[in-house]
Amino acid sequence: MSEIKAIPRLSLDRGHADHGWLKTFHTFSFATFQDFGHERYGALRVINEDRVAAHTGFGTHSHREFEIFSYVVEGELEHKDSMGNTEVLKRGDIQLTSAGMGISHSEKAHGDRPVHFLQIWSLPSPSRLPPKYFTRHFSDAEKQDAWVRVVANVDAEGVQKDLREGSKQGEGPAPVQSPLTMYVTLLNQGKSLSQAMKGSKGYVHVVMRSGYNEGAANGATIRVAGQTLREGDGAYLHVPFASDVMIENIGDRVAEVILFDLE
């Protein structure tokens, strides 16, 4: 039986920009960073790890035909959009904007602290959908040494696809119009965790919890499919049919890990 193969995407090799108000890393080609070897993977198009200074942010701008979700790591993120949604998101919150035929929004640091969040885009399967907005909350406690499904395809089991009004409405994963599932864990030292995969591709990313670092990654350390990854690192996963991905924390601190199952 074939084994899962992991191809590292090291933090040191990601695109990087320091705009003063924004410090960002790009896993895939984005803005002025263009790397034809890292354009997308399955439906996954963007993974930006952003740190936005207090009282600044992304002003109102428009998107269409993308699924855009934000995973808040630290601080508070203020969202406003052309559908009338205004919300402040904190650690544990995930926001998903299904841009569909078009939406305008702004994302800014709320309050007197910077915000650290992951901005993730995926490509929807159907086009020309009406725009929608969803938020969910997942506590640190439920992520301890367990995979929590935070985003899943709209037709997947257990997805409440019609609840979107108000703050953190509905339970379970936010519904995405792309063939992907996003899992998150807080994996403690010496612990390991497996996840059954449905797709033939996956992607794993280790969140940079210990701070902004332009150089070689440090902080939390995990092992996946024989590869060692540190904070900011990721890996493309080639997954044989019906295989399990095993993540092991081999470092000296808690690792916040994101896993995408790309169906």
UniProtKB/TrEMBL annotation:
Entry coiled-coil feature ranges: none
Gene3D superfamilies with a match to the protein in the record: Jelly Rolls (2.60.120.10)
Classification via InterPro entries: Pirin (IPR012093), Pirin_N_dom (IPR003829), RmlC-like_jellyroll (IPR014710), RmlC_Cupin_sf (IPR011051)
Domain of life: Eukaryota
Domain Pirin N-terminal stretches: 17-121
Pfam families reported in the protein's UniProt record: Pirin (PF02678)
Family, per entry: Belongs to the pirin family.
Protein name (database record): RmlC-like cupin domain-containing protein
